[in-house]
Amino acid sequence: MIAPSRVDLLPDSQRIVITGVGLTSPNGNDWANFRQALLEHRSGVQPYEVRYFGATLAGVCDFDSQRYQTKKDLRRGTRAGSIGIYAANEAIRHSGLGWENFDRSRVGIYIGVTEHGNVETENEIYQIKGFDYDTSVWSHHHNPRTVANNPAGEIALNLGVTGPHYTIGAACAAGNAGLIQGAQMLRLDECDVALAGGTSESIHTFGIFASFNSQNALASHSDPAKASRPFDRDRNGIVVAEGSCIYVLERLSDARQRGAEIYGELAGYAINTDATDFVLPNPERQAQCVQLALRRAGLEPEDIDIVSTHATGTSSGDTQECVALRSVFGECKTVRINNTKSFIGHAMGAAGALELAGNLPAFRDNVVHPTINVDHLDPACELPGLVTADAQEVAGVDYILNNSFGMLGINSVVIIRRV
To answer: 1: pLDDT confidence band, cut at 50, 70 and 90?
Structure first.
């Protein structure tokens, strides 16, 4: 029996469900393969070289970029747009929506991003350097490539969507924020289908690597697969990754009417702000965000079966999140806690959406994927029910709580329940 939630009191027209999942990640280009990689301990981190910075490690996607785009599209657009286009098309295919006959003026696109435009600006500056900085050779594609509504706009162009589209700049909380925005717009009747989630092209800008490195927050390891190690005593920073995960969201009433397969229901969510530091997290505010999401869902901490953590592999970030989680779930005996970044690195704007996708299949198979690379657990990161080394089979999974936090103190929490 699923613990009752406040969504049970809502009419079906206000209950929001997931009916499609599309993604590309460093260790899988569809939902099934991504999940299998997590259960089989397959990392997506590999050696990588980026202009100026040199050799490093990254989570790199290897998807068929021409499945939904032409070579001309790829030249004109952006990597973030291309990754998002792939994930959006895969999500629509997975949903069985009957896309060819769907009213695309009633589709909304809400894509979370951490940053956008850095890659394109760095590339243009690199090019004009070879022309003695003559700005006449600057690409006329630069403006549409770097405006804030790209890559959501590229997805809209590719799909012929004429409903609302925009990106949600929410740092590394952006994947959750995209889902939340999509749900809100459905409830406001601004659309009938929401394509919502996050995307990131961050590995293609040397500035992100250089900045993390200057903070002593960039991971290194002789074995790339062991570089991303949240909660481990010997963790030494973030592995930057690219990727995208986009969901098809619908009202429960519409999904049932068309006989759609439902993969989860949005039970609660919250976004708040630390307002204390540019980079350092505030565990009190993070805990408040989790508690607010639980309260809005009408749930208690013990109702949650899986907590998907944000932990990135930095010393302070992991520790502070653990302080927050212990304050909420410290007395819970059945909760299981895991981390997906240990497999793929930190996919920035796509992180929250991808990490949720890694756990959603647990509603059906009752298996909690592990956190890898925790060889020596940092005592400051001890958590109730932390799943390390091997996947764990549990009696049942009804609720998944997904944490995503970001710079400038933005925190987001989404709770999904089994339908």
So the answer is: confident
The pLDDT score that the predictor gives to residue 24 is 98
Tokens for 328, please give them: 């909420």
Please name the fold of domain 17-257.
Peroxisomal Thiolase; Chain A, domain 1 (3.40.47)
- The one-letter amino acid at 211: S
Spatial separation of the C-alpha atoms in residues 49 and 58, rounded to whole Å: 9
Q: How many CB atoms lie within 10 A of CB 171?
A: 22
Residues 6+ apart with CB under 8 A from 213: 53
pTM for the whole structure: 0.97
Read off the pLDDT of residues 191-242 as tens digits, 9 standing for 90 and up.
999 999 999 999 999 999 999 999 999 999 999 999 999 999 999 999 999 9
CATH fold for domain 268-417: Peroxisomal Thiolase; Chain A, domain 1 (3.40.47)
The order of strands in the sheet holding 336-338 is: 165-169, 107-113, 193-200, 243-251, 16-24, 264-273, 410-417, 399-406, 306-308, 336-338
